[in-house]
Write a structure and sequence with these properties.
Blueprint (H helix, E strand, L loop, with lengths): L1 H20 L5 H13 L5 H16 L1 H51 L2 H5 L3 E2 L5 E3 L3 H4 L1 H12 L1
Antiparallel strand pairs: 1-2
Helix pairs in contact: 1-2, 1-3
Length: 153
C-alpha cells in the first residue's frame, strides 16, 4: 500500500513537472530508474519515502482529512438527492408532454370516427340481415317522439 500511495504522489508531481523538466538530458532514463528504485524489494524506496516524509505529514493532518471526508460524504448525499429530484422532475415533464401529445393523437383518431361515419355502417346478424340502421334521428329522443306520433296518425 505504501508503494501505491508514493506512486500516486509521484504521478501527480510528474504530470506537473514533466512539461518544465522534460528538456533535461537523460530525463526519461532517470524517471525509469526512480520507478524501479521505488518498486525494488532490495532498495525499498517507496517504504523509505513513505515512512520519512508522507506518514508524518499525513499523521499531523489526520483530523483535517477526516473532517474533509465527512463533509465530502454529506455533500455527495445532498448532491445525489438534488440530482434525483431533477431527474424525477425531468421524467415527470417528459411523461406529461408525452401524455398531452398522445391525447392529441387519440383525439384525432376519434374525430375520424365521427357519428356521421358510423351512421353509414349498418349492423348485421349472422345471416347477413340488417339488424339496426343508425340514424341521427333515432339517437335524438325528441325526433323519436315525433316519429312515433307521425306513425300513429
Amino acid at each position: 500500500m505504501m508503494y501505491w500511495i508514493v506512486f500516486a504522489l509521484y504521478s501527480v508531481v510528474e504530470t506537473i513537472t514533466d512539461l518544465t523538466v522534460a528538456w533535461f538530458p537523460l530525463y526519461y532514463e532517470l524517471k525509469i530508474a526512480f520507478v524501479i528504485w521505488l518498486l525494488s524489494p532490495y532498495t525499498r524506496g517507496a517504504s523509505l519515502i513513505y515512512r520519512k516524509c508522507l506518514h508524518p505529514l499525513l499523521s499531523s493532518k489526520e483530523r483535517e482529512i477526516d473532517e474533509y471526508i465527512v463533509q465530502a460524504k454529506e455533500r455527495s448525499y445532498e448532491t445525489m438527492v438534488n440530482f434525483g429530484k431533477q431527474g424525477l422532475s425531468i421524467a415527470a415533464t417528459a411523461a406529461v408532454s408525452a401524455a398531452v401529445k398522445g391525447q392529441g393523437a387519440i383525439t384525432e383518431k376519434l374525430r375520424s370516427l365521427s357519428m356521421h361515419d358510423l351512421s353509414q355502417i349498418g349492423q348485421q346478424d349472422d345471416r347477413g340481415d340488417q339488424l339496426y340502421q343508425y340514424s341521427s334521428q333515432s339517437a335524438n329522443p325528441a325526433a323519436r317522439r315525433s316519429q312515433n306520433t307521425d306513425s300513429k296518425d
